[in-house]
Amino acid sequence: MAARWPDSELPLFAEKRINDPSAALKLLAEEARGCTRCDLYKHATQTVFGEGPADAHMMLVGEQPGDQEDLAGRPFVGPAGRVLDAALEAADIERSGVYITNAVKHFKNEPRGKRRLHKKPDTSEIDICRFWLDHEIEIVRPRIVVALGATAARGLMRKSLTINANRGRVITLPSGFPGLITVHPSYLLRIEEERDKRREFGLLVKDLRLAQEASSHARD
Fold first, then answer.
1. How many angstroms separate the Cα of 161 from the Cα of each of 68, 174, 182, 183?
2. Among 77, 93, 174, 205, which is least packed, fewest CB within 10 Å?
């Protein structure tokens, strides 16, 4: 199901009627670099757009770029990204075959001396940035979209959901695409007990395997 926006807000790939997914994604990413739809761009280094194959069967959606992602211009390259990489490997999923993005494309932060502390995006920022996420989904048309954490779930479902009450099953997103909700990899970094961390890592891997299985059974 295509994203629905006023004709005056159509992205360039739609205005130019570009049907090639790779070219459309490239043009959408270029357009997103100059995004000023909300104020987050004022305190971020750059827009961090999604990356991965334009025909990926699985799309992973996180919250927002972190400090390292903001500097590198790529999603999930920091500590949470290393957890995600390990979980994908344990689930026998090649990261290079997955499209990875975030619900919010700029790093929301609070300067604290020489450090920039992560701040959770608010509802309006998530909703405004859905313009880019909706069009990424429209172009890639994945067989399954995985929400990593509550912010991603809000961006995809257009309402707040609790993770534990909704994880472990395939649901239908408002866009019409199949979706699955799980925790954000950064959640595991905050767990102190090693036993608990191993358990939660196993549950994350289980969710990713379920998503992979669902994508393999879905039709083109």
1. 28, 14, 11, 12
2. 174
Write down the pLDDT at residue 8: 52
Contacts with 58 (C-beta within 8 Å, 6 or more apart), sequence order: 93, 97, 98, 99, 142, 143, 144, 145, 146, 211, 212, 215
How many helices (H) and strands (E) the chain has is answered by 9, 7
Strands 115-118 and 58-62: unpaired
- Give 60's DSSP letter: E
The structure tokens listed for 181 are 């909700």
Cβ–Cβ under 8 Å, residues 73 and 44: no
pTM here is 0.93
Taking only the tens place, the pLDDT of each residue in 18-49 is: 889 999 999 999 999 999 999 999 999 999 99
- Nearest-angstrom CA–CA distance, 80 and 47: 18
DSSP label at residue 115: E
